[in-house]
Amino acid sequence: MKFILNDGTQQHPFEIPPGTTIIGRDSTCTLRLKSTKVSRRHVECVCEGGSVRLRDLGSSNGTIVNGVKITEPVVLQNGDVVRLGGFQLVFQSEDGAVPPPQPIDAEIVGQPMEGGNGFGPAIPPGAPAAQPGYPEDSSTPPDGTYLPEVYKADAGQPMLTQRDGRWFLRDPRTNREIEIVPKGAAQPEEKRRRFATFAIIGGASVLCIVLVVMAILGNRDDRLVPTHKYSDVQYNEMIDKAIKEHEAGKVQASLALLAEAHADRPEFKIAATLRDVIQLLDKAGPDGIGLDFNKIDSLLKDLADRAKTGALKAQVESWQAKMLFIQGEIALLTKAKDLEAKAEFVKAFETAAQLRADSPVRKANEAYIRLLQDKSRQQFVAQAVRAKAERKWDDAISFYEQAIKYAPSVNHMQEIIAEQKVCAQEKVNTEYLLDAQAKFEAGDYADALAAIQRVEDKSLSYDEAQLLKARALEAQDVDNAKSLYSTGRAQDAIDFITGRRLESMYGLRDRASKVLQAYEEAKKLDEQAGRRSEAAAAYQRVVDLESDENNYYHKLAKKRMDELNDNKEAVAQDHMTRAFEAFNKGDIAASRRFVDLAQEIKPDLGVDLLRRLDTEARSSYYKGLGLKGKGELPEARILFKRALQFAKPGGDIYTKALSELKEME
Asked: Is 641 exposed, middle or buried (0-12, 13-18, 19+ CB in 10 A)?
């Protein structure tokens, strides 16, 4: 990981070592930058865990990262641009690419201090040159440039070389060399060379002064002496007055003063440059949008170099701070528009909302920011509507909650809150419906109907609730009809089914009618002497018609039939009782054995039980075939074994199931 230092013509890489790196103008700093606008210990850079964290050390002019003044430590990302003083450092991660060079002679950007003029708050001036610890000229390379003092022997990095007992720093890209001499330790030859140079320059200067004085004294013709309307002091006073006029909003008066000053003293160029700056600012307007920042930056630099008065210097610094501030604000606005183009309205609004309240850029774009706010609201509302259509009430409520944050007016907020309340109530109605469905599936029809009654008639769940209600009422009627029949009220069950027109129960109605008729006939025969065998046969018909052992008519007919039959049949019935007990315990083989014993006495006993066993065997076998066809072999094997358990040994189903199991082994 490294910083790329841009000096305006070249890029100088600086590898960031692990641990803490101090950047500033002090000679003890790891990376030393000579500028009055860089504090002695300006910023701290901590490299650890594969990341680099940057922290401002309370510098006078602040540290700018991507156009924003930092107040807390930040973790740098590849391509981040760090500005401090007049220097630009581009952070490059281990596998990142370096962005193209950018101008570095911009001033400090960030949160301005109080006390500015109409162009925005001014920032404090840079630290004075003559302060403790400031490096002397002898610590600066002779060619007037400054490079970082920490180098590594990588390709393209400056290299230390020794020649004739002297040390030089060589740039392999330009082959330029800089001699390294300890402070205050110049060689005797160099001291003599410096003394000779100073003597020659001093003598030449004295000679020029003498010649000029002689020329003036030798030619007294006033027409040859240039005359000016304004002295140097008056010229500077006019510059200061023009600045005050401009601050007061009197642009034309300011320009007139500057034109007059320039016409009288064109050689100074300050008035002309200041006039160009004011004209550019006036043309761009207070928001600065459309301003040629490169041009005005060049003009302000020129003014800063030529400024003679404190007022002009302060004004130039204020303008420079304002230009950087506006550039940062315009960058935010541009980013917001890019996000809007991607339909990321929330991010676009959040970005635009970062524009400062006193920013002219924000004031000029308030309508646009409100538009982004409304688009954010519309985006969340659209998501809520889709969630409503899918009955996802929690999602809809959440989306409406987000939309409230971006409501541009009280009316919009009230509309969203109303929709949110509707969703909350629909959620409750949906919960009632789901509860009713669960109770219906469990057979609790009365509770299901009670839950359905709580669903509001204007709810989206109302129609579905009514359909469930109809099913629950019909199921309740079916249960009532079955209950009447099974408890010995066959005629009431027949009348109930007919009266309610329960078409699904017409089969039960017909069976109940036949059972009731057969039972009445059996009772009549039973009451007649000498017709016991006929009565027993009649009761058998009742049992055959109604096979449910818990049914009232089945139990009465079965009991009376047993009483009419002899003891041998009672033994057979005992075998059947044991057969059912074995069946309930899952002992299918024992159950079949007891049925066989009962049928030896009375062949018609156990037919229903055997039929149930055969039905279960066939069902398991064919289900196993289906699962085998799907490739679900473990489940198919379980069903084939179950078919063997229920099938009659040696029977067709038994043989087929056994064959399938052998094939699967």
From this structure: middle
- Per DSSP bridges, beta strands 31-32 and 19-24 are parallel
Tokens of 143: 């060619």
Contact 326, 365 (CB under 8 A): no
Q: How would you classify the pairing of strands 11-15 and 51-56?
A: unpaired
Phi-psi category of residue 160: left, alpha or beta, with phi > 0 → left and psi -120 to 50 → alpha = beta
Spell out the residues 6+ positions from residue 184 whose beta carbon is closer than 8 angstroms to its own: 138
List the structure tokens of 237: 């006073």
Pick from 388, 387, 385: nearest CA to 377: 385
pLDDT at site 132? 41
CA gap 273, 307 in Å, rounded: 11
**Whole-prediction pTM:** 0.38
How far is it, in rounded angstroms, from Cα 617 to Cα 629? 19
Report the first-to-last Cα separation within the chain, whole angstroms: 65
230: pLDDT strictly greater than 70: yes
Q: Which residue is listed with tokens 């003293």?
A: 265
What is the spatial distance between Cα 180 and Cα 178, in angstroms, rounded to a whole number?
6
Long-range contacts (CB closer than 8 Å, 24 or more residues apart) made by 593-597: 597/572
CA distances 573 to 21, 490, 609, Å, are 101, 27, 13
On whether the CB atoms of residues 542 and 517 are closer than 8 A, the answer is no
Q: Would you call 153 exposed, middle or buried from its count of C-beta atoms within 10 A (0-12, 13-18, 19+)?
A: exposed
The residue among 295, 301, 281, 298 whose CA lies nearest residue 360 is 281
Q: DSSP character for 304?
A: H
DSSP state at residue 120: B
Instruction: Kindly report, residue by residue over 109-163, the tens digit of the pLDDT.
Output: 333 333 333 333 333 344 343 344 434 443 444 444 444 444 444 556 676 766 6
- Pick from 537, 534, 574, 539: which is nearest to 559 by CA? 539
The amino acid occupying position 325 is: F
- Rounded to whole angstroms, how far apart are CA atoms 314 and 312? 5
Neighbours of 577 (CB within 10 A): 11
Tokens of 390: 């899918």
Cα–Cα distance, 493 to 516 (Å, whole number): 11
**Calculated CA dihedral for residues 613, 619, 623, 625, nearest 10 degrees:** 80
In whole angstroms, give the CA distance from residue 642 to residue 140.
Answer: 97
CB pairs under 8 A, 24+ apart, for 312-319?
312/236, 312/239, 312/240, 312/243, 312/270, 312/274, 313/125, 314/122, 314/125, 315/117, 315/243, 317/107, 317/122, 317/123, 317/125, 318/116, 318/117, 318/119, 318/120, 318/122, 318/123, 319/119, 319/277, 319/281
Measured between alpha carbons, how far is 561 from 533 in angstroms, rounded to an integer? 9
Angle between helices 633-646 and 607-629 in degrees, nearest 10: 160
DSSP 374-436: HHHHHHHHHHHHHHHHTT-HHHHHHHHHHHHHT-SSHHHHHHHHHHHHHHHHHHHHHHHHHHH
The rounded distance, in Å, linking the Cα atoms of 459 and 283 is 62
* pLDDT tens per residue, range 1-10: 888 887 666 7
- Reading the block at residue 536, the tokens are 């027993």
Using one digit for the tens of pLDDT, what is the confidence trace for 231-260? 888 888 888 898 888 888 888 998 998 898
